[in-house]
Design brief:
GH; hydrolase; globular; binds 2-acetamido-2-deoxy-beta-D-glucopyranose; 341 residues; Glyco_hydro_5; signal; TIM Barrel; two-stranded antiparallel sheet; alpha/beta
């Protein structure tokens, strides 16, 4: 989500992915409740990336942490993955090769421990758009160091997922691929070898432009000694695909926008996930969303799941709000998505 992100400083994502069934055999309750074929279905839980124009910012004023009771409610609905947007600068201030800010990091580890303690996956999502202090990251070694430092703290938690960065955009495609590879290398060098790594592409990691915009350039060639890369793409269903309108283009726009990316995943034998999607609480969008999720289930050899955008305590009456008990999507869309969780 880009425009909303600028306005509100936060966003939510849901991602799901299909993996070998043996892989999540230990996932307990949330797995057993699944109705869909997806391995992962979830919600973005915003808050800790808010106020990103004010770094480091103050807890409770500029940013907040997602609410644990929301995790309880949503896992009760069957969701098993939560994307936790954070700011790179709040985790490691001043320079990417620096040291962790223990105060902010404690908030992150507390939430990650809570989510994974419930048997769900926690995605650590630096919501930085490929920037550090607003400058495009070109220092791949520094980026690798940031990830190596962070991943070392989670190396023994197999339910943690590392999302290299949220929505790279207006960057060189080759640089984006290099940054993804640097993150993978740093994470594995930290001894975190069991976890999934979600990679994202340029052009806001949009699925609809993954092939046509050249986002795919260099991405199929990423290598991981643990072979646990998942391609995270985002897809909204409004006219400009930005996720800022309540209206959806048509009842089939989702499957249409995923067609080329689906073919790319199949041709390259890769696994994908829709890390962010949403639509307004209206009949057309609900048709478009369920049609897209049905299409993804039909192609669950390459689509592992989806994540809704977004939950979090500070969204108010946001058009896509998934925060219980009264979020717009929580009350108006979620009941229609139950078969796809
Ligand atoms: C989900 O998180 C990503 C990265 O933090 C952000 O860009 C996006 O806007 C979020 N989506 C929602 C719906 O909040
Ligand atoms: C560390 O994080 C806390 C909480 O966000 C913040 O108040 C403090 O200023 C940060 N310190 C540095 C050096 O960024």
């Amino acid at each position: 989500m880009r425009f909303i992100e600028l306005l509100l400083g936060a966003a939510a994502v849901t991602s799901v992915f299909a993996a070998p069934t043996t892989d999540v055999a230990t996932t307990s309750v949330s797995k057993q409740r699944r109705k869909s074929k997806f391995q992962f279905t979830g919600v973005n839980e915003s808050g800790a990336e808010f106020g990103n124009k004010n770094l480091p910012g103050l807890l409770g004023k500029d940013y907040t942490w997602p609410v644990k009771s929301t995790i309880d409610t949503l896992t009760g609905k069957g969701f098993n993955i939560f994307r936790i947007p954070i700011m790179m600068e709040r985790v490691i201030p001043t320079q990417m090769t620096g040291t962790i800010n223990a105060t902010y990091f404690q908030g992150l580890t507390d939430l990650v421990t809570y989510v994974t303690g419930k048997g769900a996956y926690a995605i650590i999502d630096p919501h930085n758009f490929g920037r550090y202090y607003d400058k495009v990251i070109t220092d791949t070694a520094g980026f690798k160091a940031w990830w190596q430092t962070v991943a070392a703290h989670f190396k023994d938690n197999t339910k943690v997922i590392f999302d290299t960065n949220n929505e790279y955009h207006d960057m060189d495609n080759t640089l984006v691929a290099q940054l993804n590879q640097a993150a993978i290398d740093g994470i594995r060098a930290a001894g975190a070898t069991s976890q999934y790594i979600f990679v994202e592409g340029n052009s806001w990691s949009g699925a609809w432009t993954w092939v046509s915009s050249g986002t795919a350039t260099g991405m199929a060639a990423l290598t991981d000694p643990s072979n646990k890369i998942v391609y995270e793409m985002h897809q909204y269903l409004d006219s400009d695909g930005s996720g800022t309108a309540t209206a959806c283009v048509s009842s089939t726009i989702g499957r249409e926008r995923l067609a080329a990316a689906t073919a790319w995943l199949k041709a390259n034998k890769k696994l994908g996930i829709i890390g962010e999607t949403a639509g307004g609480a209206n009949a057309q969008c609900i048709s478009a969303l369920t049609d897209m999720l049905s299409f993804m289930q039909d192609n669950s050899d390459v689509w592992s799941g989806w994540l809704w955008w977004g939950g979090g305590p500070w969204w108010g009456d946001y058009i896509y709000g998934m925060e219980p008990p009264s979020g717009t999507a929580y009350t108006g869309v979620l009941p229609s998505l139950v078969p796809y969780i």
